[in-house]
Design a protein that fits this description.
Blueprint: H1 3-21, H2 39-57, H3 72-107, H4 113-134
Helix pairs in contact: 1-2, 3-4
Length: about 140
Amino acid sequence: MNVNRVGAGLVAAFALAAFAATFAFDPVPPGLPGLGAAEVPRLICGVILVLAAMLVVAKPSPPDPDAVAPDAGAWAIWACCAAFLPAMAVFGMLGASALFLVVAGRVWGERRWALLVGVSLTVTVSLWVVFVKVFRLTLPGGMIG
């Protein structure tokens, strides 16, 4: 079994699902400059699909005898990533980002709450400044956010 092809298939399936989800985005009012809310995610999905195709045609690497199965921490981080979009639907982009950073930091082993919250708030405020104030974009809001 070629693990490159299996991995590429999984990544491609995720990218196609994300691409399809962009058709449910709210339309951008006409006359706004730049790319709309759907174009950037579609562009990223397109790049991911091209990279997945390259992985399919690449020569498979030999099995690594030292490879280990993912541990519970790896699966927990994957679960955090999978929960990000549903969290964004509830808390909005900024709220989901802040929550993700705290939870992922805990999973990675950080136990100091002040550091986790401080980093989360710093990154979240930085995202807000860059995207909302500098680039004048509207970040997705959620039911609460």
